[in-house]
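Appendix B, Record 12. Input sequence as logged:
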Amino acid sequence: MPVQLTNDDIRSLVYQTCQALDDENFDKYLSLCAPDYQYQITAYSPEIRKEQTWLKHDRNEMVGLFKMLPQHVRMPGRFFRQACVGSIGDLTKNTEAVHITSSLVVAYTEPEGLSRLFAVGRYEDKIAANGKSPVLLSRTVRLDTRDLSPGAHVPL
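Logged structural output:
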């Protein structure tokens, strides 16, 4: 029988995903994702009055993206993701997945030590709730920020 997950388990998973991406520990990040994981980044454009999909990958495509990162021209500094879990679906029901919404702030620090706000938005996560520990089934990053610097290839 699966272990009943707690809100702290869910918050810990969201934190661990941010920390793994901050550290560019992509193997750790992927270990927190289900085999059929789906990832996408979207932003609403008021100019065209539509939601835009900027990136949409499954787990295998994420593996390929991570492998290709050293080949890309990249921003030389470091990203710091701060996610604040705002809502967690009902964990008391016998359910396969739980929906989580977190606010997201991403800061960027240049090699010289100057930090600036890079992006804001939300994580909309779907988390498997039927195992020993939670794993991400999907993550949609819904950005408010629509002007990202060139060379920002690491997922948010």
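The helical segments are 7-22, 26-31, 59-68.
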